[in-house]
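Researcher: I'd like a candidate sequence for this fold, 616 residues long. If you have to choose between options at a position, lean toward the conservative one.
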């Protein structure tokens, strides 16, 4: 391709709204242009890199994971989402519309419902399973705060694969095949990936793993074990740690008490820090009680305390409670992990209750909520009570201090299981740097990261709600199990740029560079033009993607543009060096002189070697 026939639209400065390097460089290099808030158009240079990225995903999903590409619509009937139960629970990020027949429609934020419906309509026998399909398609989520360009836009491209399997063993095989494909994809893209245990969130299901890239502007906090032999890494939403004992200020672990609860007036004592000063005790002696509003919980609360009159909605996707309440009890020095709490309650969301709600349920504001008097189910963290192997509760804390349920009062000598009993006992602790790894005992540290890919074992979440069945080997109807495997294409492209740049511009890895080689004649005339054209034609014949900068521009402009765009190899043709030409990799500061007759062959070898490194 010749530059005069290509659309090159570079900017000297990035717009003020661009604050991260990938966003700045994608705009400056003419990779993307903003069309609206959270909406970006890919220009021709960007499309070339985008298509290469998509093709790498296709190749690995075809060959390594055994997938087949399909193409669902972007607009999906709302009835499918009502079947799955996510019409209401997906929240305001889902863009809904009505067609002229007043039918509900969805601008697809994800494609589980579409895949399930498509396969359901043609699935009869176990002989058809597993079904393994993928798509690379446009999605829309109405992000409340789109930012960082395509890193978190409203419209975006996702590569989504789905498997429908006859049983859990088959699902495990599909899951492992996709996991292997992910590692190969990111290796070919030149990205160093951190695989972490993750929360399934709105996707549902059981096992899930995220593929993260380290980033100072990452949305996710990663909890990482420094022991290479252990290798534990998890998103903070999912991370677990080694249990530690409560203790008094002098380090003594309190034992079980027979003393009755004693009420203590605590004026102007609101926070855990205030309690430490007032009681002269470690925060590890305190039980913190927090009341949460729970949204769309599908947990059976029919036998839960204070829940018999709760409104319960029944639909095809299963029963759920639109609004309920729960009180979390956790050791005073710890914080609640709301993702874990939502999972324990099978809820779409949990939020701290408002002041008036807390007063109604607990009889006192937060800070004085009492585990003994609160009128809602108790969700008790493992730091307070744990569950033994036989399923019975065991108190971890003894002789504790907690809120009384009266404004301005706390209580001493609180004995778990004597004074209160959990409705649910779970790990809802937020793990932090400094906590100990449950696998090896090493001390965790944290990193910021961006999620590029996520794989889920969805299980029967969608096949059950959408009534999918097949005839099993024994001749009886059975319900298939599902897996889901996603990669954020735009976010991955931006992350490549975020990790590969310098003060001059992008430094593309060879696998996704818009062009592999650029030829820059100092002046497109005479002998320089003749040599540049000859190298250009030789490279094209060798199958190298080459851009010849034949524009009538000053050399400095051409050099600046090619460095900004980030083409991996530049061949400069100038009068002063002929019959030699400059051979300069974008990632290096210096160049070497190469005889013009050898330039094309050397360049082709360079391209091949760089690709081989990424594909090794």
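Model: Candidate sequence:
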């Amino acid at each position: 391709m010749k530059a005069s026939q290509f659309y090159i639209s570079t900017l000297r400065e990035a717009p003020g709204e661009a604050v991260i390097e990938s966003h700045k460089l994608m705009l400056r290099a003419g990779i993307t242009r903003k069309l609206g808030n959270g909406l970006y158009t890919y220009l021709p240079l960007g499309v070339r890199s985008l298509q290469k990225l998509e093709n790498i995903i296709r190749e690995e999903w075809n060959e390594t994971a055994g997938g087949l590409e399909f193409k669902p619509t972007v607009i999906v009937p709302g009835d499918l989402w009502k079947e799955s139960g996510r019409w209401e629970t997906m929240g305001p990020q889902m863009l809904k519309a009505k067609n002229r027949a007043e039918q509900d429609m969805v601008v697809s934020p994800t494609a589980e419902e579409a895949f399930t419906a498509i396969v359901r309509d043609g699935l009869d026998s176990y002989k058809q399973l597993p079904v393994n399909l993928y798509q690379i398609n446009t999605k829309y989520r109405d992000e409340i705060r789109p930012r960082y360009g395509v890193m978190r836009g409203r419209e975006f491209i996702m590569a989504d694969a789905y498997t429908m399997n006859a049983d859990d063993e088959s699902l495990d095989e599909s899951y492992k095949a996709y996991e292997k494909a992910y590692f190969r994809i990111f290796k070919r893209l030149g990205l160093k990936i951190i695989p972490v245990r993750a929360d399934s969130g709105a996707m549902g299901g059981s096992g899930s793993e995220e593929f993260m890239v380290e980033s100072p502007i990452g949305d996710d906090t990663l909890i990482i074990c420094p022991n290479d032999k252990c290798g534990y890494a998890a998103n903070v939403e999912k991370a677990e740690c080694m249990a530690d004992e409560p203790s008094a200020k002098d380090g003594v672990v309190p034992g079980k008490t027979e003393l009755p609860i004693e009420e203590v007036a605590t004026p102007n004592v609101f926070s855990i820090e205030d309690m430490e000063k007032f009681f002269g005790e470690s925060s590890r002696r305190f039980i913190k009680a927090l009341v949460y509003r729970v949204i769309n919980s599908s947990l059976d609360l029919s036998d839960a305390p204070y829940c018999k009159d709760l409104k319960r909605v029944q639909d095809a996707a299963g029963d759920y409670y639109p609004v309920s309440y729960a009180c979390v009890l956790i050791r005073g020095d710890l914080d609640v992990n709301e993702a874990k709490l939502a999972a324990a309650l099978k809820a779409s969301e949990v939020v701290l209750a408002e002041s008036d709600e807390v007063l109604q349920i607990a009889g006192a504001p937060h800070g004085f909520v009492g585990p003994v008097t609160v009128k809602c189910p108790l969700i008790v963290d493992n730091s307070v009570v744990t569950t033994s192997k036989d399923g019975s509760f065991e108190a971890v804390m003894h002789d504790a201090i907690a809120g009384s349920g009266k404004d301005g009062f706390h209580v001493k000598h609180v004995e778990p299981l004597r004074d209160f009993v959990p409705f649910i006992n779970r790990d809802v602790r937020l793990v932090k740097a400094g906590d100990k790894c449950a696998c090896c005992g090493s001390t965790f540290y944290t990193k910021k990261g961006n999620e590029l890919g996520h794989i889920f074992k969805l299980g029967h979440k969608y096949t059950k709600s959408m009534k999918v069945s097949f005839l099993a080997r024994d001749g009886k109807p059975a319900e298939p199990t599902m897996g889901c495997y996603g990669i954020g294409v735009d976010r991955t492209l931006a992350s490549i740029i975020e990790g590969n740049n310098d003060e001059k511009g992008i430094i593309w890895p060879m696998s996704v560079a818009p062009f592999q080689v650029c030829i820059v004649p100092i002046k497109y005339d005479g002998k320089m033009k003749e040599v540049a054209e000859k190298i250009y034609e030789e490279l094209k014949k060798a199958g190298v993607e080459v851009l010849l900068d034949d524009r009538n521009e000053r050399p400095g402009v051409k050099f600046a543009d090619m460095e900004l765009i980030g083409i991996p190899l530049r061949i400069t043709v100038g009068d002063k060096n002929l019959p030699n030409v400059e051979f300069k990799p974008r990632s290096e500061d210096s160049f070497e002189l190469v005889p013009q007759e050898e330039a094309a062959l050397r360049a082709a070898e360079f391209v091949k070697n760089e690709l081989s490194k990424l594909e090794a």
